[in-house]
Design brief:
heterodimer, A: 76 residues, two-stranded antiparallel sheet, 29% helix, B: 849 residues, alpha+beta, OB fold (Dihydrolipoamide Acetyltransferase, E2P), 5-stranded antiparallel β-sheet, 31% helix, 30% strand, elongated
Chain lengths: 76, 849
């Protein structure tokens, strides 16, 4: 049976990854918010990156309630 | 370990140690990963690679440990292993997928729980029953992800549970409901052992098919069915199979120990073989408790030893808390049938039974009017109605039902040609023999109510109960469940309630036994009724309200009737509408007829009414009234001012004599004097009498009366054709009467003449003409007396009084003499005028004046 892969980004590689997708500056400028609680996303509180169509992204902060809510309210 | 010894001996200690080390690494890979993670964590300061590897090793190690643990229960791995795939600036274009969250993992210890939770949820979402999920309703899919995540967190990282629990309440209701339903299934041990494996296999079946609402509905029904099964009460009837297009699952419950004790493993084996022949692709054998666990193992051993069934799950035992929190052993064995092997085994089993001259266990697949198809060891065999019973059966469907188990004889068997004939005649499941045998049971049977039977009009018809030993369905008609017309049997009895019954018969039309509730006592034969007397005060409940009466029950089925007029002494308060069904009230019993089962009750008689009160005050007193109407055939109606009520006196109570017709003797508007002689509670009326105002010592008088005696009497009243007389005889007073025809021997007495001959208050001597003991009446005559005492002498004068004249004759009368004298027309006399007469001859009535 093949392995199931969990896509993850290591915190220390985050800046590099975000730069590659053009999201580094918007986050540094405080232009991205948590899709659940609307808190401004920073490098410190970013927990989930959710790709959307056409190179756009949603974010969920590291508040456990936000993560839980994202998991329970989005379609599986 | 034995094989290790030989290996070590063969290749030397060093080589052996290498092999053991490799073997350990392979079998404990997950633990090693966690261990590596711990080591790397300790040296994390050395560099980013160390920290990064520590994080991925910890998550992969823990999750894969869970997965391995789960997979080792099954022959094939149901869950894939997981691997953290680092997304970097270099590979991001290949790895980023729309809506697939990328988790940000950090080495920071504070983020551990969050990392683990996210990784677990992400893994469950994508890896668990991933092939099936596209076919499942989103709410169910979400429920599975949440519950599975919760189970893992609970078992391996309790600290991370708070993240899960925090926002659970924000779930939409549908998902929440599904989650609870799945959690209840898990609590019974059937989520991980039953639902997930079935979903996994379903995914394999559905692979490359297109999701459709039909499949979604099928899966939805399966989840509900499994939940019902998981949450069933002990002994509750459950649907033990789920036949559908893609999911065909049969369940065998080892629940009642009595089944095993009475029949061994045969019924379970037969059931499994039937599932197999009905193309069920999975069979689960379930039980709770240690004793039943042993039975399950015995059954599984029998089913798998001939390779008719393969056991799918390796781990079959789970400890789960019961509803009281006590640990209970759950046994769940998953079997996959091999139809070809089962068919081969079936012929072998039949041959063995045939040679041993033993019966076989069969389960009915199909019932038609004239035959059944029965499943024997997984083979389907026709049995015609001639072979079903020792007596002729009009309609097979009335006596046999699908899923019924039969004990069958093999009457003909040909192994080579694979033909056989089966008969139910004379076996213990032959319905006629069975019915007769069951009906001969005279002890009460323990039964459980399975249904309240209702008609098309929703009227309760009775109870359907099931007995366990013997295994019967019994219909108890309403009349055998309660004596009350009003009792709602669905309130008196509850589905699931255990009761004792007696069998009464068998209804061949419906194929049901008929029974009655044991100990149901006829309320008309209870001590309560024996002791019940008129005048008792009782409690009763209103059950039915009609226009003119209310029906109440003293106890269930013991009815009594409250007539409208018995509500109150005041007519205006006699309103039926003031009462409500099920209202409990106190009543007075006013009438009982135990033969006719009739009890009358009264509300008003709890207190003394105005009529009774009037009677109490005026009993034996003379009361004045005014005649309001006269009915010749009944009596006289009159109004009593003090009572403000119209009353009645019967004709027989008017006079100590004959006063018929009443209209000739009484006049409307006249006064009438009566005496209240008794009070009748039933009718709230007083019995009045006119004649009883007068002293009438009839019995005493008759006792002392000498038939040769004359009696002295005073005229008390004159009626149309009679006069009443009060007699005083030997100290006893009686009332008597004389008819006008008995007054005179020489004159024809008209009605109007009576008062001339017998004036009121005057005294005469009479002879007793007749007596009527029934009415205590005494009839008198004067004629006989006058004949007896006539003794006139020529030349004597006699004092008499004038009574009337007719043509030229004037008639006179006295106590001892009567007669007439002639006048020439000029003389005038007044009625009652005293005269002196003399006899013209001793024999003639003619006198001179």
């Amino acid at each position: 049976m093949k392995e199931n892969k969990i896509p993850a980004v290591y915190k220390e590689d985050l800046s590099k990854l975000l730069s590659s997708i053009g999201e580094n500056d918007p986050i540094l400028n405080g232009e991205r918010t948590c899709m659940v609680c609307s808190k401004i996303i920073t490098f410190d509180n970013l927990q989930l990156i959710i790709p959307k169509v056409s190179n756009e992204f949603n974010y969920v902060c590291n508040d456990s309630e936000c993560i839980s809510k994202f998991n329970t309210l989005t379609e599986g | 370990m034995e094989y290790l010894f030989y290996i070590l001996a063969g290749i030397g200690i060093t080589g052996g140690l290498v092999i053991v080390s490799i073997s350990y690494v392979l079998s404990h890979y997950s633990e090693l990963k966690i261990m590596i993670s711990d080591i790397l964590r300790a040296i994390g300061r050395l560099g980013k690679w160390v920290r990064k590897t520590s994080v991925s090793s910890e998550i992969e190690g823990t999750l894969n440990g869970v997965i391995d643990n789960f997979n080792e229960n099954f022959e094939t791995s149901i869950l894939p292993n997981c691997k953290i795939e680092w997304v970097t600036s270099e590979n991001q274009k290949n790895l980023l997928q729309e809506n697939r969250a990328i988790i940000c993992l950090s080495f920071d210890k504070r983020d551990h729980d969050l990392n683990f939770y996210n990784a677990t949820y992400n893994f469950i979402q994508t890896a668990l029953v991933s092939k099936t999920k596209p076919f499942i309703k989103k709410t169910i899919s979400k429920g599975i992800d949440l519950l599975s995540t919760k189970i893992i967190l609970k078992q391996y990282r309790r600290e991370a549970l708070s993240t899960f629990n925090n926002k659970f309440n924000e779930l939409d209701n549908d998902t929440k409901q599904i989650f609870h339903s799945l959690e209840e299934t898990e609590q019974s041990g059937l989520y991980r052992t039953f639902l997930l494996p079935e979903f996994y296999h379903l995914g394999e079946i559905l692979n490359e098919m297109t999701p459709s609402p039909l499949i979604e509905t099928e899966i939805d029904k399966f989840v509900n069915w499994l939940h019902d099964l998981a949450t069933r009460d002990f002994d509750e009837r459950s649907i033990l199979r789920f036949p559908s297009t893609h999911l065909n699952v049969g369940v065998i419950l080892v629940a009642k120990l009595s089944t095993y004790e009475n029949y061994g493993t045969d019924p379970y084996i037969a059931r499994a073989e039937k599932y197999a022949s009905d193309n069920y692709n999975a069979i689960y054998i379930l039980s709770k408790g240690q004793k039943r666990n042993k039975i399950v193992k015995e059954i599984v051993n029998l089913l798998t030893r001939n390779e008719g069934f393969d056991q799918v799950n390796k781990k079959i035992e789970y400890i789960k808390p019961d509803i009281n929190g006590m640990p209970v052993l759950i046994t769940c064995v998953s079997l996959r049938p091999n139809p070809t092997t089962i068919r081969y085994n079936a012929w072998e089993s039949i041959r063995r039974k045939y040679n041993e001259n033993k019966t076989v266990n069969g389960i009915i697949d199909l019932v038609t009017n004239d035959k059944i198809i029965v499943n024997i060891f997984g083979l389907k065999v026709n049995v015609n109605k001639e072979n079903l019973s020792s007596k002729s059966i009009p309609d097979v469907t009335k006596l046999f039902r699908e899923e019924q188990e039969l004990d069958l004889k093999i009457t003909q068997f040909d192994y080579e040609n694979e033909t056989l004939e089966i008969s139910n005649i004379g076996t213990k499941t032959d319905p006629i023999i069975l019915i007769e045998s069951n009906l001969s049971i005279d002890k009460p049977l323990s039964a459980k109510i399975t249904r309240i039977q209702k008609g098309q009009d929703d009227v309760e018809k009775g109870l359907i109960v099931s007995c366990e030993n013997p295994n019967l369905n019994v219909f108890i008609p309403r009349s055998k469940a309660t004596f009350s017309r009003f009792t709602d049997i669905s309130k008196k009895y509850a589905v699931g309630q255990e009761i004792n019954i007696h069998l009464l018969g068998f209804d061949y039309r419906f194929g049901n036994y008929l029974g009655e509730i044991q100990g149901l006592q006829n309320p008309w034969q209870t001590d309560l009724l024996t002791k019940l007397e008129v005048g008792n005060t009782i409690d009763a409940t209103v059950k039915d309200i009609q226009e003119r009466f209310i029906i109440c029950e003293i106890i269930e089925g013991l009815e009594c009737k409250l007539l409208r007029q018995e509500i109150s002494w005041e007519e205006s308060l006699c309103d039926i509408n003031n009462y409500n069904i099920e209202e409990k009230l106190k009543f007075k019993v006013i009438f009982i007829d135990k033969e006719k089962k009739y009890i009358n009750i009264s509300l008003r008689q709890l207190t003394i009414g105005p009529v009774e009160s009037f009677f109490d005050k005026n009993n034996e007193k003379t009361i004045e009234g005014n005649i309001t109407s006269i009915d010749d055939s009944k009596g006289i109606y009159f109004y009593i001012e003090a009572l403000a009520k119209n009353c009645f006196v019967h004709w027989s109570e008017l006079v100590w004599g004959n006063v018929y017709p009443l209209n000739d003797n009484f006049t409307i508007g006249d006064k009438i004097f009566v005496r209240a002689i008794s009070y009748k509670k039933d009718y709230d009326s007083i019995i009045f009498s006119c004649k009883r105002i007068l002293t009438h010592q009839y019995t005493e008088f008759i006792d002392v009366f000498d038939n040769n005696d004359h009696v002295e009497g005073k005229i008390t009243n004159i009626f149309k054709s009679t006069a009443t007389v009060e007699i005083n005889y030997k100290g006893f007073i009686v009332q008597a009467y004389i008819h006008k025809s008995k007054i005179s021997n020489c004159s024809y007495i008209l009605d109007s003449d009576i008062s001339s001959y017998l004036p009121i208050e005057s005294t005469f001597t009479f002879i007793l003409e007749n007596k009527n003991d029934k009415f205590c009446n005494i009839e008198l005559t004067r004629k006989l007396y006058l004949k007896k005492v006539r003794d006139v002498k020529i030349g004597d004068n006699y004092k008499v009084f004038y009574t009337k004249s007719y043509i030229n004759r004037c008639f006179f009368y006295s106590n001892n003499l009567e007669g007439f004298f002639k006048v020439n027309g000029n003389e005038h006399f007044i009625i009652g005028q005293e005269l002196e007469v003399y006899p013209i001859s001793t024999s003639s009535d003619e006198f001179g004046i």
